[in-house]
TrEMBL record:
The keyword Transcription regulation does not apply. Residues 38-268 form the AB hydrolase-1 domain. The lineage of its organism: Bacteria, Bacillati, Actinomycetota, Actinomycetes, Micrococcales. This is Alpha/beta hydrolase. Keywords: Hydrolase. It comes from Paenarthrobacter nitroguajacolicus. The keyword Hydrolase applies. InterPro entries: AB_hydrolase, AB_hydrolase_1, AB_hydrolase_fold. SUPFAM superfamilies: alpha/beta-Hydrolases.
Length: 284
């Protein structure tokens, strides 16, 4: 199938649906073959469904039933943003059950990876496999500094008229800058029925929840029995890369992939290497 045909039938054209549970209307999109265990994607800080890289979603959805959704109070989902990762995990569980699923695979990036960890610890029977990218554990050293890092890079982006993700997700070097621009351009491929950007108060609430996660007591990741694939770049400024190695040591039997000369968005910079690794992991 040519790239043009993939794009025509791909994530950028998937319509949004809604499902209501506990008085909240969750906006979601789904694509790919149904019948197996779906892969539920959990998005990053300030992200809506439009922030998923189609070069990751489309090839995974070619083989698996993929579901993306916006957290409570974000994008087209109603309600207000929870002030803790644990509450966000409860919402994700509520959303998954509202769709009628008893078992899912989780793909969590950044904030989404924190939600995935909380979800598997609170609702272990719901999760079959875990992909944890650009994320860190509760109590992870350095996570609490995320507010300062984020606002600093938002200021740098404003002064240079660039997207903050170019600074937050990618190294500012010969490899990172073009990868950043390519990623931002891919996010713009969807031109219709886009979600509204996150509101400032919701964004600030998410930031505080992440900081609280970083300052909270360490969780026992040794109880996680699900297969886990952990991935990051080697120079993550938002969630220190060393925390990926920490999670790998603590989650029994987990696998770790670290991409060279890349940052928080290493999986996007190296999507051509990351996607085959995910497909092999999920298909096992």
């Amino acid at each position: 199938m040519s790239e043009q045909n993939i794009q025509a039938s791909g994530y950028l054209n998937v319509p949004a649906k809604t499902v209501t549970a506990d008085g909240i209307s969750y906006a979601y999109r789904e694509m790919g073959p149904k019948g197996g265990v779906p892969v539920v994607f959990l998005i990053h800080l300030a992200g809506t469904m439009d922030n998923w890289d189609p070069r990751i979603i489309d090839p995974i959805a070619a083989k698996h039933h993929v579901i993306t959704f916006s957290n409570r109070g974000v994008g087209a989902s109603t309600g207000s943003v929870p002030d803790s990762i644990e509450s966000m995990a409860d919402d994700a569980s509520t959303f998954i059950h509202a769709l009628g699923y008893q078992k899912v695979d989780l793909f969590g990036f950044s904030l989404g990876g924190m939600i995935a960890q909380s979800l598997v610890l609170k609702h272990p029977s719901l999760v079959r496999k875990l992909v944890l990218a650009g994320t860190g554990p509760a109590g992870g050293e350095g996570i609490q500094k995320i507010i300062g890092t984020t606002y600093y890079d938002m200021l740098r982006a404003t002064l240079t008229r660039q997207d903050p993700k170019e600074f937050l997700f990618f190294n500012r070097n010969a490899a990172g800058k073009p990868a950043a621009r390519a990623f931002i351009n891919r996010l713009k491929e969807r031109t219709t029925n886009r979600e509204a950007p996150i509101k400032l108060q919701a964004f600030q609430t998410q930031l505080k929840a992440i900081r609280r996660w970083g300052l909270s007591p360490s969780a026992d990741l040794g109880v996680i029995t699900q297969p886990a694939l952990i991935a990051n770049g080697d120079n993550d400024r938002m969630v220190p890369s060393v925390l990926s190695s920490d999670m790998h040591r603590r989650i029994p039997g987990s696998e770790l992939v670290i991409y060279p000369d890349s940052g928080h968005g290493g999986i996007f910079q190296f999507h051509d290497r990351f996607v085959p690794a995910v497909l092999e992991f999920l298909g096992r």
